[in-house]
């Protein structure tokens, strides 16, 4: 959107463009929900009609630690995702009063490239987990994220667009490796 709405136009209205395109996702999500079969476990529970009257209370009563750990793991992944595509690095790198004050368009192109890496690595993690296992894939993804987070700001602070793109893509690789298999654990 920085390319089609340069300068102040991006701040005023350009950032809304991706949200407008996301309307397509509503239809895709609806289609998926209507065509994908439920898991055998869900169907079995549905057949038995064995549901709890207070499922949230039962969840926290029986599995509080697991719920908290799962939320923290998901929050960590989401924080890395926000740093990549959510705007933090974009704002940090392009703030005119900040230490870097870089042009917005190359940063947005770097973020878009990182988003493509994230997309591909999410798909790849599913394929990889089928051959080496979900746990190994998940741990590998967190290892990549750990290294990426440690190197992200030193690389961004070089103010070199190729190094910023590399840092964002490396972080996106780790995020994708974890996102692809994460739902199998929760």
UniProtKB/TrEMBL annotation:
Coiled coil: none annotated. Residues 1-186 form the Major facilitator superfamily (MFS) profile domain. It is found in: Cell membrane. GO terms for molecular function: transmembrane transporter activity. One of its GO terms (cellular component) is plasma membrane. Keywords: Cell membrane, Membrane, Transmembrane, Transmembrane helix, Transport. Gene3D superfamilies: MFS general substrate transporter like domains. It holds the Pfam family MFS_1. It comes from the Bacteria. The keyword Transmembrane applies. It is a multi-pass membrane protein. This is MFS transporter. It comes from Acinetobacter baumannii.
